[in-house]
Amino acid sequence: xxLYRPWAVIKCLYPQALFRVKTTEKVLYLTFDDGPDVxxxxxxxxxxxxxxxxxxxxxxxxxxxxxxxLINKIKSEGHIIGNHGFNHLDGFFISTKKYLDDIKRASSxxxxxxxxxxxxxxxxxxxxxxxxxxxxxxxxxxPYDFDRKFGIRSMSVTKKLIRPGSxxxxxxxxxxxxLEFIEDFILFARGEGYKFDVLH
Length: 200
Fold this sequence. Notes:
Helices cover 36% and strands 14% of the residues. By secondary structure, the protein is of the alpha/beta class. It has one domain (20-197): Glycoside hydrolase/deacetylase (TIM Barrel, Alpha-Beta Barrel), CATH 3.20.20. The strands form 2 sheets. Strands 1, 2, 3, 6 and 7 form a 5-stranded parallel sheet that branches. Strand 4, helix 6 (124-130) and strand 5 (135-136) form a beta-alpha-beta unit. Helix 5 runs parallel beside helix 6 (124-130). The longest helix has 13 residues, at 38-50.
């Protein structure tokens, strides 16, 4: 089953995490997980630059370590870097210490203040510790751009579900389909009166 929006109970479990910006303005926030990768990051930032949009890239520490020049490119374009852990660990299946150590390791490569949990998974103890140091960013819309079988339906889901303050999570990986539709989505959203802003 695909869950395009988080369950309400998840928001209750992580009350200080940001799932959606509270606003009546028609504004959207683009975020990209898992990068950087030269095959996807460069095309993505070119599209964003063409459309004068800034975004948050929640980067994996190991990907940054392999592509250090890309993190500088992302920053130079005015985008924000977030922490997505070093090894993309699932908090549900690992001890709190190992989970926190992995995030701390990623901090020097990514961010010491902005975090998104891989898979959106954190145990309560992990969340309780992380919220002391990080602003935790979740999402309002998950369009499954990482599922190649879902294909262009990712765009249909995103178009259908946007609302004022939506934080949309896409993926900065070459095996995802976001590059196939993101520019068309941007044009659609602007045609509906939306503008784009960046989280800090």
